[in-house]
From TrEMBL:
<feature type="binding site">
    <location>
        <position position="348"/>
    </location>
    <ligand>
        <name>substrate</name>
    </ligand>
</feature>
<comment type="function">
    <text>Catalyzes the interconversion of L-alanine and D-alanine. May also act on other amino acids.</text>
</comment>
<protein>
    <recommendedName>
        <fullName>Alanine racemase</fullName>
        <ecNumber>5.1.1.1</ecNumber>
    </recommendedName>
</protein>
<feature type="domain" description="Alanine racemase C-terminal">
    <location>
        <begin position="280"/>
        <end position="412"/>
    </location>
</feature>
<dbReference type="InterPro" id="IPR011079">
    <property type="entry name" value="Ala_racemase_C"/>
</dbReference>
<feature type="binding site">
    <location>
        <position position="168"/>
    </location>
    <ligand>
        <name>substrate</name>
    </ligand>
</feature>
<dbReference type="Pfam" id="PF01168">
    <property type="entry name" value="Ala_racemase_N"/>
</dbReference>
<comment type="pathway">
    <text>Amino-acid biosynthesis; D-alanine biosynthesis; D-alanine from L-alanine: step 1/1.</text>
</comment>
<dbReference type="GO" id="GO:0008784">
    <property type="term" value="F:alanine racemase activity"/>
</dbReference>
<comment type="similarity">
    <text>Belongs to the alanine racemase family.</text>
</comment>
<dbReference type="InterPro" id="IPR000821">
    <property type="entry name" value="Ala_racemase"/>
</dbReference>
<dbReference type="GO" id="GO:0030632">
    <property type="term" value="P:D-alanine biosynthetic process"/>
</dbReference>
<keyword id="KW-0413">Isomerase</keyword>
<dbReference type="InterPro" id="IPR029066">
    <property type="entry name" value="PLP-binding_barrel"/>
</dbReference>
<feature type="active site" description="Proton acceptor; specific for L-alanine">
    <location>
        <position position="301"/>
    </location>
</feature>
<dbReference type="InterPro" id="IPR009006">
    <property type="entry name" value="Ala_racemase/Decarboxylase_C"/>
</dbReference>
<dbReference type="InterPro" id="IPR001608">
    <property type="entry name" value="Ala_racemase_N"/>
</dbReference>
Length: 413
């Protein structure tokens, strides 16, 4: 586990690990092994970066409050540590998709307002109400939420979810008057309290598109309908990360930020730094094998890559079971101050980089055990999550969220 900044910068030779005599054959001739205090395999999460990002978002969103969206294990960063850091730094709310993601936060004694918005008929509304978890409600959930509240003798806190154009969850404007009549009746009976009303944006990451304004107009019409029906949710929320960063006019009472919390940019062509954000996750491992091979050596399943010259190959012990997309051949790996593309297929557990002829001579020693960084904040020259997203034809959200539980999370800050 890294304990200081040095763990991510210059390599520190560890002569005591260099005494092993390399076996003959294809193992690298050099006997000196470069080691750093890199974790074997880790997603290192910088909680100070999370706090920094939250402070930034609180400043941007003010006077609206900030909900830290920690669904999907905080986009792969670890829900509990991230939730704690976010609340410390000024987030007022927590948000998750599923009730099952909310309950562990309550079990860990986090008492901040907490919303879960994606349910099925089998969702445990009773457990949510008992744990004081607010529930998104598109309509069909209402009788089940009311029944669960009745059973507990408690008042369920709900947020009406409006479909303003995304076409997923939410009540349409056409269905809304009928839902509001039921909502008003159950609220009068003390079975529910309508705390909020919200919707989700479809194209906020493309600020030039007109649909966001149309969604806003539909949302405000829904709020009007609610008031007309005697339902007065005090918290209106619509903005996700991109809208928080680009549309101060639609922050309303609360913004729901996920990606930006983790220091990643939701906007094409905008770096995190240009948005005042710091990427929180560094994916790091150690070189697991390093050896010389002749020209025309095939590499990994399918032998899709053949070494153009005699060269040195280094094995990186992360693969698709760790959440590295198999399609991401060519993705950048930083070793000893140089960035190498992954060559050949990414396998379940491992992938290979070609150190090139320079690898043979550079320092004249094996890189076995050397720190290998796939992505991070960039202060060590390593690649960004966005570069891995490009290599995998996907988005930064997916890259960090898919880092699997097999990769230990290590916390700093
Ligand atoms: C995931 C999610 C968010 C957060 O979106 P980001 O773009 O990551 O900020 C906000 N609201 C809802 C309903 C979501 O599902």
């Amino acid at each position: 586990m890294p304990t200081n900044e040095g763990a991510f910068s210059a390599s520190k030779p560890r002569p005591n690990s260099a005494t092993r005599v390399p076996p003959p054959g294809r193992v690298h001739r050099g006997s000196r092994v470069t080691r750093v205090n890199a974790p074997e395999r880790a997603a290192v999460i910088d909680l100070e970066a999370i706090r920094h990002n939250v402070r930034r978002l609180v400043q941007v969103a003010s006077p609206a409050a900030v909900m830290a969206v920690v669904k999907a294990d905080a986009y792969g960063h670890g829900a509990l540590p991230v939730a704690r850091a976010a609340l410390e730094a000024g987030a007022a709310w927590l948000g998750v998709a599923h009730i099952e993601e909310a309950l562990p936060l309550r079990a860990a004694a986090l008492t901040a307002p907490l919303l879960a918005w994606l349910h099925t008929p089998d969702s445990d509304f009773g457990a949510a109400i008992a744990a004081n978890v607010d529930l998104g409600c598109s309509g069909w959930e209402l009788p089940r939420i009311v029944a669960a509240a009745d059973l507990l003798g408690r008042t369920a806190r709900i947020h009406l979810k409006i479909d303003t154009g995304l076409g997923r969850n939410g009540c349409t404007l056409t269905e809304l008057p009928a839902l509001l009549a039921d909502v008003a009746r159950h609220e009068a009976a003390g079975q529910i309290e309508v705390v909020g009303i919200f919707s989700h944006l479809a194209v906020a990451d493309e600020p030039e598109r007109p649909e966001t304004d149309a969604q806003l107009a539909t949302f405000l019409a829904a709020v009007e309908l609610a008031h007309a029906a005697g339902v007065h949710p005090s918290i209106r929320h619509l903005a996700n990360s991109p809208a928080t960063l680009t549309r101060p006019d639609i922050h309303l009472d609360l913004v729901r930020t996920g990606l930006a919390l983790y220091g990643l940019s939701p906007l094409a062509g905008r770096t995190p730094a240009s948005l005042g954000l710091r990427p929180a996750m560094t994916l790091v491992t150690q070189i697991a094998h390093c050896k010389e091979v002749p020209a025309d050596q095939g590499v990994s399943y399918g032998l899709n890559y053949r070494t153009p010259t005699a060269t040195t190959l280094a094995l990186v012990p992360l693969g698709y079971a760790d959440g590295i997309p198999r399609i991401a051949t060519g993705g950048p790996v930083r070793v000893n101050g140089v960035t190498y593309p992954v060559v050949g297929r990414i396998a379940m557990d491992q992938m290979v980089i070609d150190l090139g002829e320079a690898g043979l001579v550079s320092g004249g020693h094996s890189l076995l055990g050397a720190e290998a960084v796939l992505f991070g904040p960039g202060d060590g020259g390593e690649a960004s999550v966005d570069e891995w997203a490009a290599a995998a034809s996907t988005i930064n959200y997916e890259v960090v969220t898919r880092i699997s539980p097999r990769v230990p999370r290590v916390y700093r800050g």
